[in-house]
Amino acid sequence: MTRVLCLLLSACPVVLTACPGPGPEDAGPDAGAPHAAAADAGDGADAGGDDAGDGVDAGPPDAQEIPEQDLGWESFDPPDGIMDAQWAHISADLGDGRAFVFGGIDVGAFGGGSVLGHTYLFDANQDPPGFTEVTPAIGSSPEPRYCGCAAYHPEYNKVLLYGGRDLGALMGSTTWVFDLDDNSWTISTPFGSGPGLGCSMAYYPGDGKVYKFGGASAGGSSNRLWTYDFSDDTWTEIEDVDPPSARYDAELFALSDRLIVAGGAASAQNDFRSDVWSFNPANNKWVELSPNAQEPTGRRVPWVRVAPDQSHFYFGFGNNFGEPLDDLWTFDLADNTFTAVDLDPAPLARSFSRALPGGWGEIGTLMYGYDMLDIVPDLWTLNASSEALTWW
């Protein structure tokens, strides 16, 4: 496929003033810009999973169609007039090359802009990938927000949306459900399900529940784990064993037999993590797979995509103490090691750009982002190598 290189650089990086509103003492709004917290991800439509990918191997359409291509980044033009550049979107992977995308923020270096409340379907199966705005059925809809989390439940064909914030306040523990059958929003009744700022969420096929990890509130960050059950509309806090340290803006994704947490930070100013943890829902026990002392640099809001055969995942971008990152790594889930991946060309450093899925032969999509001064208004896909196309 041929895509046009498109790097639209902002004219002048001007630091924004601090954004008002509650937040943990150092996990709330980051001083100097309204990028207090990150968005999170979930999963979706025909094959459930998480923002990092659901690990389901659909296989190539036809072995004879496998093109000659190397592992590498490829940029494509932003969709004209459909979705303008933004950051900190909330997304849920639908498991078939599509994703549900809600909210975000388009405030840049010169101020202006707003917190967004649009609903989109992203489709990476198109060439180039595209967005379709979804008009919800008549009724209530979530307030505009960014830095919340979402996940898709394939059996119910619904997306669970939780938390987030606007420029002035946190959204608290409000839970919304979007029905993809009739494009309707419903506000859920349960409360008391933990912080919603920079939370992480994933659907786990082993028990048919959605898991939510971490997040932050005005009181600080959390390491608590919750499940949501669509069958009776309830949140339940898990009595887990040996959990990771408290954090927000981490990535949570599901494998066939466990959940994985990677990265995150205790606050906007300290304890940025690159550790990787595994949670076993059968015994509610956490096991650390990689200590934070190992590379890569700790970060909030990592870009993560898991291989369909669940052998490894990609981990990159995000920010460390306000410094945007542009590196990319793979984590081997068999020997629990990180390996750096150096590619040229590569996207500019950015954060607040949770991974979206890729189409067949594509590992994932990097959509816009924030370089801690201004919006980064370009889009990229990470293409798999020809050798890997039997399962990407």
Question: Could you explain how this protein is built, in words?
Answer:
- This protein has 392 residues and is mainly beta.
- It has strands spanning 72-76, 90-93, 98-102, 119-123, 130-133, 149-153, 158-162, 175-179, 184-187, 200-204, 209-213, 216-217, 220-221, 225-229, 234-237, 251-254, 259-265, 272-280, 285-290, 303-306, 312-316, 319-320, 323-324, 328-332, 337-340, 362-367, 379-383.
- It is built from no helices and 27 strands.
- Helices cover 0% and strands 32% of the residues.
- Strands 2-3-4-5 form a four-stranded antiparallel sheet, with no helix packed on it.
- β14 and β15 form a beta hairpin.
Topology (SSEs and partners):
Blueprint: E1 72-76, E2 90-93, E3 98-102, E4 119-123, E5 130-133, E6 149-153, E7 158-162, E8 175-179, E9 184-187, E10 200-204, E11 209-213, E12 216-217, E13 220-221, E14 225-229, E15 234-237, E16 251-254, E17 259-265, E18 272-280, E19 285-290, E20 303-306, E21 312-316, E22 319-320, E23 323-324, E24 328-332, E25 337-340, E26 362-367, E27 379-383
Antiparallel strand pairs: 1-27, 2-3, 3-4, 4-5, 6-7, 7-8, 8-9, 10-11, 11-14, 12-13, 14-15, 16-17, 17-18, 18-19, 20-21, 21-24, 22-23, 24-25, 26-27
